[in-house]
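Contributing new records

If you add data, match the layout below exactly. Sequence lines come first and carry their own label; structure lines follow with theirs. Keep one chain per record. Anything else will be rejected by the validation script.
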Amino acid sequence: MNNKVALVTGAAAGIGAACAKRIAQDGTLIGVLDLDEARCADTVKAIMAAGGKAVALGADVSKREQVQRAVKKCRDALGPITIVVNNAGVTDFTPFEKVTDALWQFVYQVNVLGTFIVTQEVLPDMKAAKWGRIVNISSSSAQTGTNSMATYSSSKGAIVTLTRSLAQELGPYGITVNNVAPGSIMGTIMSEANRERFQFSPDQLVNSLPVRRLGEPGDLANAVAWLCQESTSYFTGQTVGVNGGRVVS
């Protein structure tokens, strides 16, 4: 994996930061992208301190011009991008009848349009290399649906089907496309919001999971890093559930 370049979105903290740092351990150079470039500093410092190389990037993933500037900065600093982790996303806990057009559009702009734009902007590098790894982050809610989360769950469901379609279209170019669907991950904004919204305690949540513990960002990062490896070239179009058994297949 030496000298390969990965772009990880939503990487200033939480799952995205864990993914960026874990992939960097394999010798991959990392573009650390988030809405606020300054917030990426801690992730970049951690990667550099461990002997890796990274660059901080700022962009709203739903704005193509901003993404284009960030991608150019990443290429100029590190080289062509052949790995992308589409982690940037927003959540929502609004009952369906109270969802406005503006709210629906906002969630889809970040979660779906953002994934589309980022992937499309880095795709030429992958095609030129005849090698690529696209890893999308959805949610276990995309697989089950969740009460009062129609906007979020359906937008993440779109990521599942986008993954399947792109895997078929891009496979002939040596590009794999997979999706990781996290469940309850400790310390993430979404899990904290879940507990507050539905008023259950951490113990109740833990006892509802077969593995009897909450996930950690590192659990997800390990799965993402595996999907970025050379050894997963025959693995594409799949949804990998990192959810402690909340969803089984």
